[in-house]
Amino acid sequence: MTGGKAQVILSEAAEEAVKRIQKADILVGIPSYNNAKTIGQVVQMVSAGLAKYFPQARSVIVNSDGGSQDGTPQVVEQVLQENPADSFIAPASPPIEKIVTPYQGIPGKGSAFRTIFKIAEELQVSACAVFDADLRSITPEWVERLIRPVYEGSFDYVAPLYRRHKYDGTITNSIVYPLTRTLYGKRLRQPIGGDFGFSGKLAGHYLSKDVWETDVARFGVDIWMTTTALAEGYRVCQAYLGAKVHDPKDPGADLAAMLMQVMGAMFTLMEEHQTTWQQVRRSEPVPTFGVQQEVGLEPVQVNVERMVKALRQGLRDLLPVWEIILPTETLSELLPLGLKDLEEFRFPPDLWVRVIYDFALASHERVLHWEHLLKSLTPLYLGRTASFVLETKDSTAEEVEESIEALCEQYEAMKPYLVGRWR
């Protein structure tokens, strides 16, 4: 594999646009694939946010598209031609530029980001943000909150902070947030939120990495961006954005693929940054911008019975696999979980943390084929999620957040177990 920069090839139209624009201050990227229904609203809000909050900046909006068949790029062109930012822009302000381009490379969000990073580097921008193309809750304020800490402050990376339903984002709540904060020492609440702000300097650093022909380019880019910023010493913060409205999913349904992708990326990054995270002793808060407000949230339906059933099935079918991955002590505590009645079912937090650490260690020691290892985590994750729902069914959002905080503290307290066995 060659280095990241050599692989990046912009389309001819994108190259011409970059030459025409020459330099910009702010870039907002919107990666897309068949998002014609929602991307128009996102582009409108981004345009309005740039015009309202950064009227004197030279700004550019980049739509990096993965070959949409539903007319997504055409929607972007149409919305930008109508220029919804006009009502905000003072007569002397520079116009907002646009680049609508297909991305090059293997299909996936990471390849879309690589195009955005490349254009940011070419235009020598100082601040960037990226937004998902399927957002339904974005406002102009999101643009301001993700960009200002970089543009006027000294931060290199701004993670989003959303208000979410207590059962939305269970992979983040039970694994990604606690493990990321334990490993790298910063309490970034949404490490895989999808919408980020970052400096032009960090964009160039991302571009130089040799990951663009790997799984990162397909589906690990969010956690990779966050981890790289944390592990390599960039200044990070988070910004409160309010509710993130997207299509809510039952935490027990269709999450096996996402769990595999996220955990595969996290375990890979643990190898890359092992010297760094083994030296981190405790976590600390990061600066937070914006004001938390109460917002309306869409309900998330949860089928606890199906999740517990999946764990019981795993205890029957996957025992030979788990015997390879998990130490006898961990396994002996897991086995009785299959015998409990639904209302009494509980998956203790300390046992869950040990399971995650044991899987990380099994990945490190390559005891099993990568895909089999990651797939076999799913029933255990569903069991822990079911337990969490049963424990918190009468809890307020604040009480649920306290439970997640307690789980994070459990991860941190048990980190010596991970470090000791890793070595």
- Categorize the overall geometry: elongated
Proportion of residues in β-strands: 5-15%
Average pLDDT over all residues: 90
Radius of gyration over alpha carbons?
Answer: 22 Å
Class from secondary-structure proportions: alpha/beta
Main beta sheet, described?
Answer: 8 strands, mixed
The run of helices and strands is HHEHEHEHEHEHEHHHEHHEHHHHHHHH
What's the total helix number? 20
β-strand number: 8
Q: Give the low-confidence spans.
A: 1-6, 247-253
Helix content: 40-55%
Strand order of the largest sheet: 3-2-1-4-6-5-7-8
The level 1 CATH classification of the largest domain is: Alpha Beta
Euclidean distance between termini CA atoms: 29 Å
CATH superfamily of the largest domain: Spore Coat Polysaccharide Biosynthesis Protein SpsA, Chain A
Determine the CATH topology of the largest domain.
Answer: Spore Coat Polysaccharide Biosynthesis Protein SpsA, Chain A
Sequence-ordered SSE layout with sheet pairings:
Layout lengths: L3 H4 L4 H10 L4 E7 L3 H18 L5 E7 L6 H11 L14 E6 L6 H14 L4 E4 L9 H12 L5 E7 L6 H15 L11 E4 H8 L7 H5 L1 H11 L4 E8 L12 H17 L1 H5 L9 E2 L14 H14 L1 H7 L2 H7 L14 H17 L4 H6 L2 H15 L4 H17 L1 H8 L1
Give a quick set of tags describing it.
disordered N terminus, 423 residues, Spore Coat Polysaccharide Biosynthesis Protein SpsA, Chain A, alpha/beta, eight-stranded mixed beta sheet, single chain
Can you describe what's shown?
It is a single chain. This protein has 423 residues and is an alpha/beta fold. It folds into two domains: 4-289, Spore Coat Polysaccharide Biosynthesis Protein SpsA, Chain A; 304-422, no CATH class. It is built from 20 helices and eight strands. Strands 3-2-1-4-6-5-7-8 form an eight-stranded mixed sheet, with helices on both faces. The chain is elongated.
